[in-house]
């Protein structure tokens, strides 16, 4: 599946002291160039950023993309950006399932939600990247084929949603329940209480005691079956599920402050790799064989085997003031590079950096000029077939760009 994009350049400026006008001094010579063009712009508002860093803002379904708007869903033709249908949901969207089910069903939480915050010593509240909060919300299941709500049910708080097969997990602060996504029929409860920590991803739930204490229990959303239950002897605190199959977790070693990748196995937890450097605010993408951690704070990327944790590839840095990775493609990592000022103005280089060697494919030196703030929008970029989609300034619209890579032609 090809996935990248670019905009037509908007005029050139002369280099100053060897630094190109996009503010990026290349760390490697580009091995090839790519061509691209703006495909379309849709005047459809995107849900606010504060509903959570990991919350989706767009889904792929059939020949369309479905935008999660502030108070509803809007389907757009992927080729033209034309509106196909619009479904008001009757309130603020507070969260959603990461992807549609195979039958085209999704679920959203709707209600009077607020940004998550943490108190400061001065009594103020600072916004975090955590999911939105609410006293009460309604979970609504939507059939994307008919553009209709098929069932809805009220819940306390603003629960996290996850899909496994045609089952829906609704994980709140003090409970986790499974439902049939098509009918809303209850499928059972998971043993998760107010003193538990719950992580969800890739159709798997990992439940541990508050602070990561033992035992750890992993449950498959599709069947509700426990796939692993282990007593963790080492002081690991699970932070994030990296891959569901095999079940691999990013954890904090609270004894020495390390970040480690661990595997949950029937007879225990096996440490695969120390990723203390790479794990800070890392972009994570996984296949059946490997996981890539790419971080702006590092900056760089590492590809690890999910079999034994060995390093399969990577690169240590990019030589730019800022590098924002957002997708994995054909053995490389896509990202925007540039100075903070350049990225704010929509300039910078869109690059594909190989995990296997030092090769670099440059996909544009004047990307999204005046169309969006890349420093804000790039982390939300998604790639579908040959189209890259991002929110425009202030989440006020959707930008689509199409690109052809020489290696894929």
Structure description:
It is built from 2 helices and 35 strands. Helices cover 2% and strands 48% of the residues. The chain has helices at 340-344, 374-377, and strands spanning 32-33, 35-42, 58-61, 64-69, 72-77, 83-88, 92-96, 105-111, 117-119, 125-127, 136-143, 148-156, 160-164, 167-171, 176-180, 186-190, 196-201, 204-209, 216-220, 226-230, 236-243, 248-253, 258-265, 268-274, 283-286, 290-295, 300-305, 311-315, 322-329, 332-338, 349-354, 360-362, 382-384, 387-391, 398-404. The chain has 3 domains: 1-27 and 321-409, no CATH class; 45-118 and 127-190, Lipocalin; 193-317, Neuraminidase. With 409 residues, the chain is an all-beta fold. The strands form 9 sheets. It has a 5-stranded mixed sheet with strand order 1-32-31-30-29.
Helix-strand blueprint:
Blueprint: E1 32-33, E2 35-42, E3 58-61, E4 64-69, E5 72-77, E6 83-88, E7 92-96, E8 105-111, E9 117-119, E10 125-127, E11 136-143, E12 148-156, E13 160-164, E14 167-171, E15 176-180, E16 186-190, E17 196-201, E18 204-209, E19 216-220, E20 226-230, E21 236-243, E22 248-253, E23 258-265, E24 268-274, E25 283-286, E26 290-295, E27 300-305, E28 311-315, E29 322-329, E30 332-338, H1 340-344, E31 349-354, E32 360-362, H2 374-377, E33 382-384, E34 387-391, E35 398-404
